[in-house]
Amino acid sequence: MVLTPRERLQALPVERQVQLLDPAEHEFAEHGYEQASINRILKQAGMSKGQAYHYIAGKADLYYAVMARAMARLTTQLNPQAVMEAEPDQFWEALSVLFARVSTCLSQDERLAALARRCYDSPQSIAALKPLWDGLFEQLEQLLRRGQVIGVIRQDLPLSLLAPMVFAMAREADQWFALHWPTLTAEQAQTLNQQVVLSFQRFMGLP
């Protein structure tokens, strides 16, 4: 079976992936997708273009790999499974804790926060991350379905309508926080997070 460049990158030992992804992460966090330079990344990685393009199909592919790794790092710290496994009387509190952890993680990891701010820089950066958005949408559908089963999520709207509406709300909230994060104090971020959770509860919860 012929592997794609992305599959070849994923098959590398972690230390070899780091050789390329660490300088790429720094470049994208510092300059954003549009202004990031593949040449600068490869110079820092000590790789030729021939070597690099064996593992990436292009700039968008490298950006996706960087953001997928960052998302995995964030997910490990968030433990979203706790919301999926919450009992009905704990569901919204578990969701609130999840949002609070996002704020904490971003405040403690400036590189991660910079990547989060940059992912909405341009239509190209958003398009490059489509597989990530699709994966997050699937997770949201699972969460909503679970919430309906345990009786905390509304069922008067079909899931095929409810999920895209909630996802759009989440994307807008995420983009707002990404753009305004540098201006918020930790207390302001936590307060706004709580208000966002309440907004989701009012919309998603039982009518």
Essential attributes:
transcription regulation; 2 domains; mainly alpha; HTH_TetR; 207 residues; DNA-binding transcription factor activity; 12 helices; Tetracycline Repressor, domain 2; Tet_transcr_reg_TetR-rel_C_sf
Describe the protein in words.
Keywords: DNA-binding, Transcription, Transcription regulation. 77% of the residues lie in helices and 0% in strands. It has two domains: 5-65, Orthogonal Bundle (Arc Repressor Mutant, subunit A), CATH 1.10.10.60; 78-204, Orthogonal Bundle (Tetracycline Repressor, domain 2). α7 packs across α8, α8 (110-118) crosses α11 (159-180) and α10 packs across α11 (159-180). The model has no long low-confidence stretch (mean pLDDT 92). It is globular, with a radius of gyration of 19 Å. It contains twelve helices and no strands. The protein starts with a helix and ends with a helix. With 207 residues, it is mostly helical.
Helix-strand category? mainly alpha
**Multimeric state:** single chain
Shape, per Cα inertia axes: globular
Kindly state the percentage of residues in helix.
Answer: over 70%
Uncertain runs are none
* CATH-defined fold name of the largest domain: Tetracycline Repressor, domain 2
How far from one another are the termini?
A: 52 Å
**What share of the residues does DSSP label as strand, in percent?**
under 5%
As for the number of domains, it is 2
Please count the beta strands (DSSP E, at least 2 residues each): 0
Mean pLDDT: 92
The name of the CATH architecture of the largest domain is: Orthogonal Bundle
DNA-binding region: 37-56
Domain HTH tetR-type: 14-74
Keywords: DNA-binding, Transcription, Transcription regulation
Protein name: HTH tetR-type domain-containing protein
